Amino acid sequence: MNRLTALILTHDEAENVQDCIASVRFADDVLVFDSYSSDNTTELARQAGARVIERPFENYASQRNAALQAVEGMTEWVLFVDADERVTPELAAEIGEKIYEPSYAGWRIPRHNYIFGKLTRGAGWYPDYQTRLLRIGSARYDPARHVHELVILDGPEGTLTHPFIHYNYHDAAHFARKQQQYTAYDARILYEQGIHPRPQNYILQPWRQFWWRFVTLKGYQDGLHGLRLSTLMAWYELRKYLLLRRLWLGNQ
């Protein structure tokens, strides 16, 4: 029985997978859970010493639950790490201590997000807690939350001090692709809940999003970078309601 298994979910992550694996060498086992990449992600993962399991992708919650099931009975704890994330030596040492505490079902970990190559401390991107250190048998993902996964814990949750390093959103095009996916998903959820867009939503919701990001969440601390991100998130809030309107018009 392993004490800790690092789980890395991948799809076409040849650029990142080996560096990610290198950062989790402290774990007893490293498993790359791949959704049939079209590049050489799995080959590179095996070369780096990781085990590889391939499974068709349905949604993020389903994939993470399947990964948990794949290591059940083989390990006491799992650490989920995205391929574009890195575990620092300080975080590794902290994890090594916490997995010996018997009273917790899971631990959440802050993240340092690098967006467009810049460390982003405001606008909602820090501390950006992620519940990723999970005790097997005491944690699962809500199957109804296909995106922005929600962990369900059968026990208390703790909070670690040292952060992941997250190299997300390399450029504006990458940011746009991801936000388009998220807004389409969020619009569909609102539609399924029977929510109709109102005229004021196209103005008030983007403005509230901007104010929340730039002022409440202190995006201004990141200067022009924070202003840019807050403005972009306001635009995608508008896009969400435009997509919601399109869904209702298409159903008439």
Summarize this structure briefly.
This protein is of the alpha/beta class. It has helices at 17-23, 41-47, 60-71, 89-98, 172-192, 201-216, 223-250, and strands spanning 2-10, 29-34, 51-54, 75-80, 85-87, 106-109, 111-115, 118-119, 130-135, 139-141, 151-153, 157-159, 164-168. The protein has 2 domains: 2-168, Spore Coat Polysaccharide Biosynthesis Protein SpsA, Chain A, CATH 3.90.550; 172-250, no CATH class.
The outline comes out as globular
Distance between the termini: 57 Å
Assign a percent range to the helix content.
40-55%
CATH class descriptor name of the largest domain: Alpha Beta
What structural keywords apply?
single chain, 252 residues, alpha/beta, Spore Coat Polysaccharide Biosynthesis Protein SpsA, Chain A, 2 domains, 7-stranded mixed sheet, 4-stranded mixed sheet, 7 helices, globular
